[in-house]
């Protein structure tokens, strides 16, 4: 499982011109699922997202997590995180999970953030073409991979 985590002052996602999710200060998480991913991968990524200390404390140091600031999270499915561009000019997406499996883990990720961590979570719409708008604060962008490839 992979995630691109961006610290934001605001974020929103629209489908067919209609806003389906929006947040204020918090994180935008673009989430990609691989074929072999299972709950342990989900838990690894979720633990990182919830506990990353990438918000500034009163001294201006990145010392606070999303929980510490009572921030919001916008989670958007993004199979293109598994795009392979090493050969040719068109990416291959054979390393991305099938839609049914990806959606299952995507929905579990969202429900676990809400239920286990009591966070406000907004979402995109799985499998839809989405327009994502963010105001990246810093900018701060982190890359996570449950296989620890980076």
What does this structure look like?
There is one protein chain. The chain contains 2 helices and 8 strands, in the order E-E-E-H-E-E-E-H-E-E. The protein has 150 residues and is α/β, with parallel strands linked by helices. It has helices at residues 39-51, 99-117, and strands at 2-15, 18-23, 26-32, 55-56, 62-64, 72-77, 120-123, 131-145. A hairpin with a 2-residue loop joins strand 1 (2-15) and strand 2 (18-23). The mean pLDDT is 97. The protein is globular, with a radius of gyration of 15 Å. It has one domain (2-145): D-tyrosyl-trna(Tyr) Deacylase, Chain: A (3-Layer(bba) Sandwich). Helix 1 (39-51) packs across helix 2. The strands form 2 sheets. Strands 1, 2, 3, 6, 7 and 8 form a 6-stranded mixed sheet that branches. The protein has a two-stranded antiparallel ribbon with strand order 4-5.
Give the gist of this structure.
By secondary structure, this protein is of the alpha/beta class. The chain has two helices and eight strands.
- CATH class equals Alpha Beta
What is the percentage of strand-forming residues? 35-45%
| Sheet having the most strands | 6 strands, mixed
Report the strand count: 8
How would you state the average pLDDT, rounded?
97
Class derived from helix and strand content: alpha/beta
Relative helix content:
10-25%
């Amino acid at each position: 499982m992979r995630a691109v985590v961006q610290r934001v002052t605001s974020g929103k996602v629209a489908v067919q011109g209609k806003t389906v999710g929006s947040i204020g200060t918090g994180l935008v998480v673009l989430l990609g699922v691989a074929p072999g991913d299972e709950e342990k991968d989900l838990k690894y990524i979720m633990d990182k997202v919830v506990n990353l200390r990438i918000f500034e404390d009163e001294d201006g140091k990145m010392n606070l997590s999303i929980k510490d600031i009572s921030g919001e999270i916008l989670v958007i499915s993004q199979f293109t995180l598994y795009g392979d561009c090493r050969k040719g000019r068109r990416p291959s997406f054979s390393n991305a999970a099938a839609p049914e499996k990806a959606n299952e883990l995507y929905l579990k990720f969202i429900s676990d953030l809400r239920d286990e961590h009591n966070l406000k979570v907004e979402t995109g719409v799985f499998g839809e073409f989405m327009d994502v708008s963010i105001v990246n604060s810093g900018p701060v962008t982190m890359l996570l991979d449950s296989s620890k490839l980076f």
